[in-house]
């Protein structure tokens, strides 16, 4: 499915398509990027393993997290695993490039993935982050959901590799994207 425009207007349909694909393909693990928790709430209880990956602590403001603590607690109570950690496709490398005004390999990888859309980059990133945290199984296909800004507009089937072997990540199918 190709959306005419990116953005949050596609969130509900993206989640529906991802859940339908998971059911049809027998995929138990869904990783979703969600900073406010709104997209993750749409998945709570609808798949055996739902992992919500937030922006890193300090992403918007130093020392702060964008997801309110009560939303995080509600997601966890509903069985969603919530991961907040350094972004695998930026993190420390972005700090170095800002300081020294250069382009570095991981940032080049991120920009290359964005050629397929911001959401595809996010899907790869959050799936690798969830794998590195031990929240999804190694060697199995998962569904990742991401977006362009707020909401979700992209879902992919992929087999993530650990960050140390990220180029071994395999994108099997794009379910939907702008």
TrEMBL record:
Superkingdom field: Bacteria
GO molecular-function term, one example from the UniProt record: kinase activity
Domain Pyruvate kinase C-terminal: 14-157
Pfam families: PK_C
Protein keywords: Kinase, Pyruvate, Transferase
InterPro entries: DUF1867, Pyrv_Knase_C, Pyrv_Knase_C_sf
Protein's name in the database: Pyruvate kinase alpha/beta domain-containing protein
Organism: Anaeroselena agilis
């Amino acid at each position: 499915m190709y959306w005419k425009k990116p953005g949050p207007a596609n969130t509900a349909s993206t989640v529906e398509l991802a859940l339908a694909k998971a059911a049809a393909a027998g995929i138990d693990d869904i990783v979703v990027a969600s900073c406010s928790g709104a997209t993750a709430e749409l998945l709570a209880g609808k798949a055996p393993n739902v992992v919500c990956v937030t922006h890193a602590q300090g992403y918007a403001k130093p020392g702060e997290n964008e997801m309110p603590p009560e939303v995080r607690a509600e997601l966890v109570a509903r069985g969603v695993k919530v991961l907040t950690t350094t972004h695998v496709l930026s993190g420390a490398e972005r700090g170095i490039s800002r300081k020294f005004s250069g382009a570095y390999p991981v940032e080049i990888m991120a920009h290359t993935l964005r050629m397929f859309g911001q959401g595809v980059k996010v899907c790869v990133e959050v799936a690798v982050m969830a794998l590195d945290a031990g929240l999804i199984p190694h060697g199995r296909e998962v569904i990742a959901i991401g977006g362009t800004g707020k909401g979700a507009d992209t879902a992919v089937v992929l087999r993530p590799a650990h960050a140390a072997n990220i180029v071994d990540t395999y994108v099997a199918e794009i379910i939907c994207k702008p």
